Amino acid sequence: MNQDQLKQLVGRAALDYVTPGQVLGVGTGSTVDCFIDALAASGIAIPGAVSSSERSTQRLLKHGIKVLDATEVTALAVYIDGADEIDGKGFMVKGGGAALTREKIVADLAEKFVCIADESKLVATLGKFPLPVEIIPMAAAQLTRHFAKLGGDAKLRAGVVTDNGGHILDVTGLAITDPLAFEAEVSQWPGVVTVGVFARHKAQVCLLGGAGGVKTLTF
Ligand SMILES: O=C[C@H](O)[C@H](O)[C@H](O)COP(=O)(O)O
């Protein structure tokens, strides 16, 4: 199976976590696109979804699935999203599609984060994938210096403006051995809107697609 087929496989597998009649949190990315398509084809009736990006909102609406504003719900039972990297504890790097800020907001509303990914995303230590950080543009140079002190090389993602009007730094050269401490530290730097390490909002479940089918990892 190629990577696209694996994404479709885990997208379909995630339907097991959708409860009819319950509002669902929906992430962003090519794997989530497969999930949204599978959800629409399944006929499972949900009252609506809270979306983490304009991209997912458009896809949900195209399928006739109602999109609710995050301010309209007090809690979500489940949030389904992809990842750029996930480790053996359910800690993730996210934001390759620049949607990390809204993703963390929706994940914060949810009791359970279900990550859907192909097996290429499973890593021993986070940091090989360039770490996305949404920032306020005027802080770019200073934040680049802060990352350099940690051994990171931060580059502004050219031509990208997020759904929130922010910019993205992609940071290479990091080995994130303590994701909780790293997230707490970087989140405090002035000008950081959201760091793409999801440690406080880690996955509780990962549906990992590989040659042998879908493996369910629980953390
Ligand atoms: O901003 C994008 C998100 O964090 C995605 O969940 C992540 O980049 C994974 O996307 P994909 O399923 O396309 O690999």
UniProtKB/TrEMBL annotation:
Keywords: Isomerase. Its EC number is 5.3.1.6. It comes from the Bacteria. It catalyses: aldehydo-D-ribose 5-phosphate = D-ribulose 5-phosphate. Substrate binds at T28, G29, S30, T31, D81, G82, A83, D84, K94, G95, G96, G97, K121. Pathway: Carbohydrate degradation; pentose phosphate pathway; D-ribose 5-phosphate from D-ribulose 5-phosphate (non-oxidative stage): step 1/1. The active site is at E103. InterPro entries: NagB/RpiA_transferase-like (IPR037171), Ribose5P_isomerase_typA_subgr (IPR020672), Ribose5P_isomerase_type_A (IPR004788). It is an enzyme of class 5 (isomerase). The keyword Hydrolase does not apply. GO terms for molecular function: ribose-5-phosphate isomerase activity. Pfam families: Rib_5-P_isom_A. PANTHER family: RIBOSE-5-PHOSPHATE ISOMERASE (PTHR11934:SF0). Belongs to the ribose 5-phosphate isomerase family. Catalyzes the reversible conversion of ribose-5-phosphate to ribulose 5-phosphate. HAMAP family: Rib_5P_isom_A. Homodimer. This is Ribose-5-phosphate isomerase A. The lineage of its organism: Bacteria, Pseudomonadati, Pseudomonadota, Betaproteobacteria, Burkholderiales. The gene is rpiA.
